[in-house]
Protein: Uroplakin-3b-like protein 1
Amino acid sequence: YVPTLATSPLGGLKTTSTFVLEQPRCAFTKVQSDAVIWLVVAIPEAVANFSNSVGPGTPERAFQGFPTSTHAYMTLNTTLRNYPCPKPPGEITVLRVGSETSCATDETRPTCNGPLLGPGPYRVKFLALNGSKPVAETAWSKPITLKTALPSSSIPATGSGRSTGMIALTSILSILFAVLLAGLVAMLFFWGSHARGSSTFSKPEAVTVRRYNTHHVYDQPAARL
Structure:
C-alpha cells in the first residue's frame, strides 16, 4: 500500500501548511484489531535511514523539532477499528495533515499534528505498532510538495487589465459623487439664503392721516311763522 493524496472533491487538498491523505483502508488486514496505526511524516533525506524501533513521543520523533533537529515525526495515531475494510459507500475517508495549531509549540505534545513550516517536499507512510513493537508498515509515499505563498513584492501594483478598468470606473464614480454632493450643498445654501431673505420685514411706510375739522350741526330753531 502506498499512501496517496486524497481524491475527494472537497478542495484544499494542499495548502501552504497542510495536505490531505486517503485513509489506509484495507492496508493492514493481517494485523490484530488492537494495533495502533501511526502516520510518519519525514523529509526525503530521512527515508533511507528511518528506524521503526524509535517510538512516537520521543525527542527523535517530536513534531516541535521538525524538520531541523527532527527529520521525521509520528502523529495521527488511531486503532485499526477506525479504518474498517471495505470502506462504506459514500463515506469520506481522509486525513488532513497539519491541521492542529494549538499544540505546534507545546513540547508536552510531541505527537502534535501541527502545521508544516515549509513547502517540503515531504514523504509519509503508515506504521502499525502493537505496544511498542512494529508489526506492519506501508511503503513510503511519493514526494508531496505544498503550495507556496506569493511574496507581496511579486504582486503587480496595478493588477490585471480588469483591475485597472475597475479602478478607473471607481475613480469616475467618486468624482461624479463629489460633484453631485457639491451641487446639493450649494442648492441647500441657496434655498437657505432665499428663505431668510423672504422672512425679513421691511420698515412700513408712515401713514399720513389728514385731519378734518368736524362741522357741528346745530338744531336750527324752527322758522318763525
About this structure: The chain has one helix and six strands.
